[in-house]
Predict the structure.
Amino acid sequence: MRLFDCIVARLLLHYQVTINGSVMLSRDIDSLHGVSLLAGSNHSHWDMLREVITLYMTPPDNMKSILMGPDGDMRSSKGLLYLVGQEKALVFLSRRWDYREKGSIGTKKSDWVFELFRKLELKDPTDVKIDVTLYSAENWRKSA
């Protein structure tokens, strides 16, 4: 679980993930999951992390259906907002390389991000400081 916590904290605090990087990250997560199977018995947090990694592989046009599910319902059990939790999904989404873009006075959210939050009628949880301890393996297991 400590390995998971270290990976997630680094990802949320220091990295932005590209589409190509997400493929490598997915393979790394699979390898780390395999190693973690040698210790302990409950590894559902790795499975949920693998689900969240799909946010980095999905084009912005398809993001709403990944988050809400194919039914387009916020409560659909097929969307990431339901599977991993609304705040977790949106915080991980914010680590996409194209989530922010450079503007004349610094960085700002990309247009597709504003449009997505408008369609979902949600607030961006990354507008305030993120507490990475909320994303520990223990907390992921409790929410599963």
